[in-house]
Design goal:
14 helices; six-stranded mixed beta sheet; alpha/beta; 2 domains; 6 strands; about 50% helix; globular
Length: about 350
């Protein structure tokens, strides 16, 4: 989002430098600065972790030389075709060419172009250095969709109007179908299950390859099992166990769906399986403040590695939890009951967050 003020400034530097003598542009910059102030102040107190995080995503891991991924832009375009169902990306790119500044005199259209097309291509070029996430160029489409609709309006009665109308109808139908399937996955999942391999020990959840809603499902099932383990441990020891997950998304689900909405923690950093997250900043936490949790029993959800295992005196055999609907396995977790917490050798050390 910080690219927007930069894009606006670039536009005025190229086309309307006289705006720098008027209050409007400075009001814009003042508002942006005011909005950034709390973010900058927080980062100043936390070793600029947000900035280091983004630099790591774009530039690679600390100490690792940057490598050129020549196929990166092609992967980027392929992802955008999937995100925009093909047709809308074609309309966006065609509009970017049609309304390019040298061919367009309308001041507003030029400004929209500068806030969308260069931003989109910047993300595409960034994929030469490191492959990004498909949603990263989303800010470019805020203005880009306006250009796309304007281009479609021009073409609606043009020479290729029939092709344009068929393409728009197909793109809209496909997007509505995907939207329906995402919000009502139970209606389409049995079909998806037939398109993938039969569940096996090597691949127990094959439907997740096609079902984009799978990660949203099954958390109540997991919470019921975790609550059962919690109740057993309270009966035996008379004390609530500490809840944790080895992926940063799990503690939030446990804290929401489990009985009483208990506090949960993230152990992905010592486990070596996860990125840093806000859980590393909330104190106390078991990774950085072992003394506050020493001797406690933990209920951990997820796969655990040697570092986490060595942090406890003994660990019960893992409990497998599988959530299935209509005979189709969708989600699975392992619950570990770990006794006698001793602490981990690896702390979160958020000051060195790079590459996540």
């Amino acid at each position: 989002m910080t690219l927007f003020p930069i894009a606006v400034l670039s536009y005025f530097l190229v086309y309307k430098r006289s705006e720098f003598r008027r209050p409007g542009l400075w009001i814009l910059l003042s508002g942006a600065t005011l909005g950034w102030a709390p973010i900058v102040e927080w980062n100043l107190r936390h070793d600029w972790v947000s900035f280091r995080h983004v630099i790591g995503q774009v530039g690679g891991e600390q100490g690792t030389p940057a490598q050129i991924h020549w196929s990166g832009p092609l992967v980027f375009v392929g992802c955008q075709i999937g995100m925009l169902f093909g047709g809308w990306l074609i309309a966006f790119l065609a509009a970017g060419w049609r309304f390019r500044p040298r061919q367009e005199n309308d001041v507003g259209v030029r400004l929209i172009w500068w806030c969308s097309v260069p931003v989109w291509f910047l993300f595409g070029l960034a994929n030469l250095i490191k492959l990004g996430q498909p949603n990263w160029p989303a800010p470019a489409y805020i203005g880009g969709i306006i250009l796309a609709v304007a281009w479609l309006r021009e073409q609606w009665f043009g020479r290729h109007s029939r092709l344009i109308r068929i393409g728009l109808l197909g793109t809209t139908a496909l997007s509505l179908f995907v939207d329906f399937a995402t919000h009502s996955p139970g209606t389409i999942r049995p079909v998806l299950a037939k398109l993938v391999r039969v569940p096996s020990a090597a691949k127990p959840l094959p439907v997740r390859d096609l079902d984009i809603s799978a990660r949203l499902i099954g958390w109540k099932t997991l919470a019921r099992e975790v609550d059962g383990v919690r109740a057993r441990l309270v009966d035996v020891a008379g004390q609530e166990p500490i809840l944790a997950g080895t992926n940063w998304t799990v503690p939030g689900h446990l804290g929401f769906y489990c009985e009483g909405q208990p506090q949960a923690y993230a152990l992905g950093i010592p486990n070596g399986t996860d990125r840093h997250s806000q859980y590393d900043f909330w104190r106390p936490n078991p990774v950085d403040d072992a003394q506050a949790f020493r001797g406690r029993t933990f209920v951990i959800v997820g796969d655990i590695g040697p570092e986490v295992r060595n942090g406890f005196e003994w660990i019960e055999p893992g409990l497998q939890v599988v959530h299935a609907e209509d005979g189709v396995p969708i989600a699975a977790w392992t619950i570990w009951v770990c006794h006698g917490f001793r602490g981990f050798a690896a702390a979160s050390t958020y000051g060195h967050i790079l590459g996540y």
